[in-house]
């Protein structure tokens, strides 16, 4: 009887002990390689190693070009699994809860730099240890094309 209780207690402890895996979409993203700097757009994180899901991530965006780009508060979050990047989906209600969390609404002028905060906890994300990247897409002012940049970070 003591052995059975011990085994049951160990199963309960081991089942509750670790953080669950990060939820990702099953298909990898088509663009596995994205730079932090492209077409004069540069993105950087103040920190790139976090212990647990960060409350806030400080992001710097710089337009070192002669072009005007549209952007917004939205970031795509991706998780690296088996050497491939996968999207970490947001809950459906996030966009209703945070209507400004979209990819448009602001202009990044030539030679302008701005700072944004990405707030994983506010977005109801629970991130397991692993390798991630933030992806930001900018829309050229002529709407002819987009530029995407990404910065990697680690959750320990």
Question: Can you describe what's shown?
Answer:
This protein is mainly β. It has one domain: Immunoglobulin-like (Sandwich), CATH 2.60.40.10. 13% of the residues lie in helices and 38% in strands. It is built from two helices and eleven strands, in the order αβββββββαββββ. The protein has helices spanning 2-17, 94-97; strands at residues 37-38, 41-45, 49-50, 57-63, 69-71, 76-81, 84-87, 106-108, 112-118, 130-140, 146-155. Strands 3, 5, 6, 7, 8, 10 and 11 form a seven-stranded mixed β-sheet that branches. It has a four-stranded antiparallel β-sheet with strand order 1-2-4-9, with no helix packed on it. The protein starts with a helix and ends with a strand. The relative contact order is 0.27. Mean pLDDT is 89; it is low at 1-19.
